[in-house]
Protein backbone atom coordinates (compact mmCIF):
# COMPACT_ATOMS: atom_id res chain seq x y z
CA UNK A 1 0.00 0.00 0.00
CA UNK A 2 1.16 3.49 -0.78
CA UNK A 3 0.48 6.04 1.93
CA UNK A 4 -2.44 8.43 1.58
CA UNK A 5 -2.18 11.90 0.10
CA UNK A 6 0.49 13.90 1.93
CA UNK A 7 1.39 17.54 2.36
CA UNK A 8 3.68 18.99 -0.32
CA UNK A 9 7.41 18.28 -0.31
CA UNK A 10 9.44 19.96 2.40
CA UNK A 11 13.01 19.88 3.67
CA UNK A 12 12.29 17.00 6.04
CA UNK A 13 10.50 14.48 3.80
CA UNK A 14 10.09 11.98 6.65
CA UNK A 15 8.03 14.49 8.66
CA UNK A 16 5.34 15.15 6.04
CA UNK A 17 1.80 14.62 7.34
CA UNK A 18 -1.25 13.29 5.56
CA UNK A 19 -3.80 15.78 4.30
CA UNK A 20 -7.45 15.27 5.24
CA UNK A 21 -7.88 13.51 1.89
CA UNK A 22 -4.98 11.21 2.84
CA UNK A 23 -6.60 10.34 6.17
CA UNK A 24 -9.87 9.61 4.36
CA UNK A 25 -8.06 7.41 1.81
CA UNK A 26 -6.41 5.39 4.59
CA UNK A 27 -9.69 4.78 6.41
CA UNK A 28 -11.53 3.92 3.19
CA UNK A 29 -8.88 1.41 2.19
CA UNK A 30 -8.87 0.01 5.75
CA UNK A 31 -12.57 -0.77 5.40
CA UNK A 32 -11.99 -2.30 1.96
CA UNK A 33 -9.05 -4.39 3.22
CA UNK A 34 -11.05 -5.68 6.18
CA UNK A 35 -13.99 -6.60 3.97
CA UNK A 36 -11.88 -8.40 1.36
CA UNK A 37 -8.64 -9.62 2.95
CA UNK A 38 -8.55 -9.28 6.76
CA UNK A 39 -4.84 -8.38 6.99
CA UNK A 40 -3.34 -9.62 10.24
CA UNK A 41 0.27 -8.46 9.84
CA UNK A 42 1.64 -4.99 9.16
CA UNK A 43 5.05 -3.78 7.99
CA UNK A 44 5.28 0.02 7.80
CA UNK A 45 7.76 2.76 6.99
CA UNK A 46 8.82 5.02 9.87
CA UNK A 47 7.89 8.15 7.88
CA UNK A 48 5.01 10.10 9.46
CA UNK A 49 2.65 9.83 6.47
CA UNK A 50 3.07 6.04 6.32
CA UNK A 51 2.52 5.74 10.08
CA UNK A 52 -0.63 7.87 9.81
CA UNK A 53 -1.86 5.72 6.92
CA UNK A 54 -1.25 2.54 8.93
CA UNK A 55 -3.16 4.06 11.86
CA UNK A 56 -6.09 4.86 9.57
CA UNK A 57 -6.13 1.32 8.19
CA UNK A 58 -5.85 -0.11 11.72
CA UNK A 59 -9.17 1.51 12.71
CA UNK A 60 -10.86 -1.32 10.80
CA UNK A 61 -8.28 -4.12 11.06
CA UNK A 62 -6.73 -6.06 13.92
CA UNK A 63 -3.05 -6.78 13.39
CA UNK A 64 -1.51 -9.61 15.42
CA UNK A 65 1.94 -8.55 14.22
CA UNK A 66 3.12 -5.02 13.49
CA UNK A 67 6.58 -3.65 12.83
CA UNK A 68 8.11 -0.40 11.64
CA UNK A 69 11.17 -0.77 9.43
CA UNK A 70 13.41 1.60 7.46
CA UNK A 71 13.63 -1.08 4.76
CA UNK A 72 10.49 0.34 3.08
CA UNK A 73 11.31 4.06 3.00
CA UNK A 74 11.21 5.74 -0.45
CA UNK A 75 14.90 5.22 -1.14
CA UNK A 76 14.96 1.71 0.35
CA UNK A 77 16.39 -1.21 -1.57
CA UNK A 78 13.58 -3.36 -3.02
CA UNK A 79 15.55 -6.64 -2.82
CA UNK A 80 16.32 -6.03 0.87
CA UNK A 81 12.66 -5.19 1.55
CA UNK A 82 11.44 -8.29 -0.30
CA UNK A 83 13.93 -10.54 1.49
CA UNK A 84 12.95 -9.09 4.86
CA UNK A 85 9.23 -9.50 4.14
CA UNK A 86 9.74 -13.12 3.07
CA UNK A 87 11.73 -13.76 6.26
CA UNK A 88 8.93 -12.28 8.38
CA UNK A 89 6.36 -14.40 6.56
CA UNK A 90 8.40 -17.53 7.24
CA UNK A 91 8.93 -16.69 10.92
CA UNK A 92 5.32 -15.70 11.59
CA UNK A 93 3.18 -18.58 10.28
CA UNK A 94 0.30 -17.37 12.44
CA UNK A 95 -0.09 -14.40 10.05
CA UNK A 96 -1.85 -15.11 6.77
CA UNK A 97 -2.28 -11.71 5.15
CA UNK A 98 0.42 -9.05 5.20
CA UNK A 99 0.07 -5.34 4.56
CA UNK A 100 3.12 -3.23 3.73
CA UNK A 101 2.54 0.54 4.00
CA UNK A 102 5.23 2.40 2.13
CA UNK A 103 5.99 4.97 -0.58
CA UNK A 104 6.65 5.46 -4.26
CA UNK A 105 8.86 4.35 -5.84
CA UNK A 106 9.73 1.41 -3.56
CA UNK A 107 6.18 0.00 -3.54
CA UNK A 108 6.34 -0.45 -7.33
CA UNK A 109 9.82 -1.95 -7.15
CA UNK A 110 8.76 -4.25 -4.30
CA UNK A 111 5.87 -5.62 -6.38
CA UNK A 112 8.36 -6.29 -9.19
CA UNK A 113 10.73 -8.06 -6.77
CA UNK A 114 7.93 -10.32 -5.57
CA UNK A 115 6.25 -10.80 -8.94
CA UNK A 116 8.80 -10.08 -11.71
CA UNK A 117 7.47 -8.15 -14.67
CA UNK A 118 4.79 -6.34 -12.68
CA UNK A 119 5.55 -2.79 -11.63
CA UNK A 120 2.28 -0.91 -11.11
CA UNK A 121 2.13 2.83 -10.50
CA UNK A 122 0.39 3.50 -7.19
CA UNK A 123 -2.02 6.37 -6.66
CA UNK A 124 -2.06 7.62 -3.08
CA UNK A 125 -3.76 5.09 -0.83
CA UNK A 126 -3.62 2.36 -3.48
CA UNK A 127 -3.12 -1.30 -2.58
CA UNK A 128 -1.54 -3.94 -4.81
CA UNK A 129 -2.84 -7.43 -4.18
CA UNK A 130 -0.27 -10.20 -4.48
CA UNK A 131 -0.76 -13.89 -3.83
CA UNK A 132 2.43 -15.29 -2.25
CA UNK A 133 3.13 -19.03 -2.09
CA UNK A 134 5.48 -19.61 0.82
CA UNK A 135 6.36 -23.13 -0.34
CA UNK A 136 7.65 -22.02 -3.74
CA UNK A 137 8.52 -18.45 -2.71
CA UNK A 138 6.71 -17.27 -5.83
CA UNK A 139 4.15 -14.51 -6.09
CA UNK A 140 1.35 -13.67 -8.46
CA UNK A 141 0.35 -10.05 -8.97
CA UNK A 142 -3.46 -9.92 -8.98
CA UNK A 143 -4.58 -6.28 -9.03
CA UNK A 144 -4.12 -2.73 -7.87
CA UNK A 145 -6.94 -1.01 -6.06
CA UNK A 146 -7.18 2.72 -5.41
CA UNK A 147 -9.52 4.56 -3.03
CA UNK A 148 -11.43 6.08 -5.96
CA UNK A 149 -12.24 2.58 -7.30
CA UNK A 150 -13.29 0.63 -4.22
Automatic annotation (TrEMBL):
InterPro entries to which the protein is assigned, alphabetical: His_Pase_superF_clade-1, His_PPase_superfam, SixA
Gene3D superfamilies from the UniProt entry: Phosphoglycerate mutase-like
Protein name: Phosphohistidine phosphatase
